[in-house]
Structure formats: C-alpha cells, structure tokens
Task: structure prediction
Amino acid sequence: MRGSPIVVQESAEIYPGEIRSMDTRNVKLRTPADTWGLVDPERQRKARQDAIDDGDLIEITRMGRDVGIVYPLAVSARAAQSMVPFPNMPQEIVTENLWDTLHAFRDKADTTTAEEFEFQASLYQNGLVPTITFKATVSPGDDGEPVITIMMPDEDWETIGCGHHNTCDTMLTVDDVASALNFTPGRIREFIREERIPAVKCGGSWRIKRSELERIMNEGF
Result:
C-alpha cells in the first residue's frame, strides 16, 4: 500500500547550561503606544474639516477660485489675524487685504513647482502698510485630494489646531456665536449689521473673533 511519506523531525537536544536562541524573525516588539493606541495630542494630525469647524482654519475656496486657484483653499487663524489685526477694520479693507494676499500667493505659485514656499504681501493696517511673510503648502486633504493652506511661517499644516495652546484669536462662525449666546444665527447677523458685534467677512462668511465673544459674554452688548 502506497501512502504519504512519514517525516520524522528531530528535536534539538539542549544540554545543561545551554541557552537556546529564539527565532524572532516574525516577532514584532510592541510598545505601550502600539498596544493601547496612544499618540501625542500635540503632534497628532487634526482632520482639516475639524480645524475649519473649530475656527483654526478659515475656508476661502470661493475667493481663491476668483483668482484662478482651483484647489480647496484655507488660511490659518493666525494668518487671518495678521490680515485683520484690528476688530473694527472696515470690511472693504479686510477684503482688500485678503485679495492682496491671494494675488501675492498666485504670483509666487506661478514661478515654482515646490509644494511649500514662503511669500510676502503688503497689507493695510491702521494707516501703515507692513510687508508680512506667509507660508503656503499644498498637501493631502482628508480624502487625499490636494488642498492649499496659507499660514504663518512657523506653523505646520499637519498640526494646526492641535493642542489649542497658542495665543491666536480664533475666528468663530455665526453658528458658533449663536450657540454660545443662545440666539439664532439670523439674530447674530442682525447684530453684525447693526455693528453691535464686530465681524469680518472671509470667503463669503462672517467671522467673529473669540475675544469679541468673550467680551460680550462678560460685559454684554
């Protein structure tokens, strides 16, 4: 009768005092972070949409398209604060500063294939026209699509909004302020038109500095 051959595997003999080595080729050393899924919250990348919802990024894609920028575009709250450093700046000055920044970005982008670069824009600020340096980067968005972020030179697109330990004045949406003050968004827009709440329009949407909200909550209108 013909059958499968029998394979006899000899076991290695271990002598007293001998340490047998273990085959670790398929053994991966795990750390507590691997085991428990731990990350450093200061370094963890924040989803872009979360950063926009939290006011750490301000979406200005529509304005970008008007100057020929087709990718989704946002500016960091710190960059926006550099463009709008005073709460009562006239809206036309705010809009002009945004346009000047976008044109300066476009002019530099036309000359380079680098995925990150610095550029400068001269912006009107209370009678002065200082030259401010910004940084722009094109990077993967939440779904892998290319997106553009304009920020300050010391910011990192991967960590904007993480930790919330910076001192920048976050720009809030009308819905954020309405929720905090227990008003409808429509009523907040009325307050803005009545100039009871200082606000600026960025990319077609009103934005209110967090410091203004805190002032209203502490002092009233």
User: Anything to note?
Assistant: The longest strand covers residues 131-140. The radius of gyration is 27 Å. Confidence is low (pLDDT under 50) at residues 6-12, 18-24.
